[in-house]
Amino acid sequence: MPNLTYLDQLGAAPVWHHFQKLASIPHPSGHEQELCQYIKTVADNNGLRWQQDDAGNLVVYKPATAGFETRPATILQSHVDMVPEKTQNSPHNFLTDSLELLIKDEWLTANNTTLGADNGIGVAAMLALLEAQDVNHGPLEALFTVTEETTMAGAQGLDPSLLNGTVLLNLDTEEDGALFIGCAGGVNIEARHQCPMEPAPKNYQWFDLQVSGLRGGHSGCDIHLQRGNAISMLVRVLKALEPLSLRISQCQGGVLDNAIPREASALVGVSADQAQAAQKTIDDVYSTLRRELDAVDPDLHLALIPATAPVSVFAITDQTMWLNALHSCHHGVKRYSDHFAGVVETSNNLAILSMQDGCVAVVCFTRSLVDSAALDLADNIRGLLCMTGAEVQQVGHFPGWQPNPDSEVLKRLIAVHRQLHDNKPTIRIIHAALECGILSAVKPGLDMISFGPQIEDAHTPRERVHIESVERFWTFLQTAVSSLAA
Description:
The protein is of the alpha+beta class. Helices cover 29% and strands 29% of the residues.
């Protein structure tokens, strides 16, 4: 396995220099201050002016190279936060520890954690461009936004007076050789309910029921792959166990609203004389799920592990009601676009479940290219969850980015791609939520495009970036900036 110094020998060495520094600075959503300070230090060391707004977004200004002072300003944009996902056995602390980077074949990854290539490669490329002395460009405005992976509060709270440019290059997509011209908007559904608990019944056998081994993935980029949702599977197993006098003490699954849940578990009991039947039921459901998901989740694992009896359990009425509601809650693609072949229009991610000490909390993330469709599906799910008596609200709605096939910046960048690769790039619309929709609402009139290197399995501990694609991305970015100033 090559040493990481190998990266410093590549054509994108300036990008790798900054990315490795970013990997040493903890920066999950809501904890971006130290990384923002690093960006300020880079700006100061290069004599560049910067400003920060009340939302925490940072803009660094680089004057035009000589002879290009009258050209319009170009905005470069990436978010500085990362998704903090890790494997069950990883001791990594995202608030204190550096990421452990690894090179595996042609890919850069991390040791049992997310890599932060989403969107750290974009951030590193912007920093490298701010330092570059051999790229002709007009005025540059490097916009570093915060909390993109959670609330998008950074983009929503952006002070538009910090920006003068009318062209924006978003560096947050993950397909080598593609230009993105539109994205989905979204809204969260959050349900909370306090249920009375009752003493755990006697003469019961107790188990820790575990669902693990799923691939998970980005709830926008990967939702169409139909990978298993650990929460949905856990509920399916629990429904199968209901006839065995099932009692539930607690359940949990999922970590983030924009990550398809990979693991879920529950502390459950069945009457002692049904323990053997419970194991057979688990084996039967396991075989069924393996057959259903063998192509997309071959490492699925169900386990029923003996556990200590809990003090209390959910009342049967509440248990039944919540299992039915969760079993009925839609997860996955709801509709494909009528206008863009193969593009997901609307989906929902059943993202987080917690049933602990009588408190039930459920989070879903609904996305759509059509804002009204996102809100309609969210309202549908809200109505379902309201039937449990829970307090349910829709929060954090943000608009999608409507495609503009006649975009001038799109025409320019298609020409750049032809110049570099002698072919036309793939033109895409992404179901993931970029900040472009919000930014176009905050600062109307922006002509935007998004591109990036090849990143796979974002929002999971298997996240990886193709090393050579970063070099192509870096070359394309430099050429695009020069072209826009021509």
